[in-house]
Design a protein that fits this description.
alpha/beta; Rossmann fold; four-stranded antiparallel sheet; 10 helices; 40% helix; globular; binds adenosine-5'-triphosphate; ATP binding; nucleotide-binding; ATP-binding
Length: 278
């Protein structure tokens, strides 16, 4: 079992082409994700954000290009070696993708059973319960079925399963879609906390401007079949690409930006020692 990845870029995508029949989704797409960062991935609907994620985790084989994950060539990986890498990432798919006939805890146990069949039933149950709580669910949620959970709780249950194997990489596909603003903000805070405390690298597909402003270290923009820019939002705003300007500088983008500035100002004020007249 290799130790944790210590290189600078746990995900390296180089010159990838993905096509379905005549329809080319990616052409010459490259992206490097830094270790320990939360990278937001944005782009219009159908630009291939999910296809990119699926390529990185080996579910979609590109017709051209190379993808390295945690130092392993995923586009060439076969057999046991492939499985070895798979145990080092966790994925929260759109909608949670929970098994409806299993309880939350049993869902979390699925990857544990697959990758560590030698673990005793008792220990496996204990680990599952720990992950449920780590994901911010009440302990009693462990015995509930997905149908008994709210949308936000389902996402957290999916997250608990993604964290089952103590991954180094966490993939989140639109985690706040369908959540109310309070639920979305809470999920963002949890993602940030997990990145900080567990040292995770997070690949986060989202349309949520608040999430991008709030927790992403950098944002990768997909347009014209490739990643056209990867940078902080502040630097992306300096580019004059029409989609980037419309997305970040449109009415919703500006509102999210102003909200973020208000939060930063309030935080600074609270950090300041109290003075007479404050
Ligand atoms: N298995 C597949 N077979 C055929 N076409 C596919 C397949 N998977 C994805 N596509 C196509 O690839 C394109 C990109 O899809 P993808 O789901 O990655 O977009 P996205 O950027 O994640 O979109 P959204 O923001 O709407 O979720 C779409 O045109 C989609 O129809």
């Amino acid at each position: 079992m290799p130790g944790p990845f210590r290189g600078e870029f746990p995900i390296v995508v180089e010159g990838v082409r993905n096509a379905f029949g005549e329809s080319v989704v990616h052409e010459g797409l490259s992206l490097k994700v830094r270790r320990g960062e939360i990278i937001g991935v944005v782009g219009g609907s159908g630009t291939g954000k999910s296809v990119l994620m699926r390529s990185i985790i080996g579910l979609q084989v590109p017709t051209e290009g190379r993808i390295e994950v945690l130092g392993e060539d995923i586009t060439a990986a076969r057999g046991d070696e492939d499985i070895d890498i798979r145990s080092r990432w966790g994925v929260l798919f759109q909608g949670g993708a929970l098994f409806s006939t299993l309880t939350v805890a049993e869902n979390v146990e699925v990857p544990l059973r697959e990758f560590y069949p030698e673990i005793s039933d008792e220990l496996r149950r204990e680990i599952a319960r720990f992950k449920v709580v780590l994901s911010g669910l009440p302990e009693d949620a462990a015995n509930k079925y997905p149908a008994e959970l709210s949308g936000g709780m389902k996402k957290r249950a999916g997250l608990a399963r993604a964290l089952a194997l103590d991954p180094e990489l966490l993939f989140l596909d639109e985690p706040t879609a369908g959540l109310d603003p309070i639920g979305a903000a809470a999920f963002d805070a949890l993602t940030k906390e997990l990145q900080d405390t567990l040292g995770l690298t997070v690949f986060l597909i989202t349309h949520d401007l608040d999430t991008l402003h709030e927790i992403c270290d950098r944002v990768a923009v997909i347009a014209d079949k490739r990643v056209i820019a990867v940078d902080t939002i502040e630097n992306l705003l300096k580019l004059d690409h029409p989609w980037i300007q419309e997305y970040f500088n449109g009415p919703r983008g500006r509102a999210a930006h102003m909200a973020q500035e208000r939060i930063v100002r309030t935080d600074k004020k609270m950090d300041k020692p109290a003075q007479a007249g404050d």
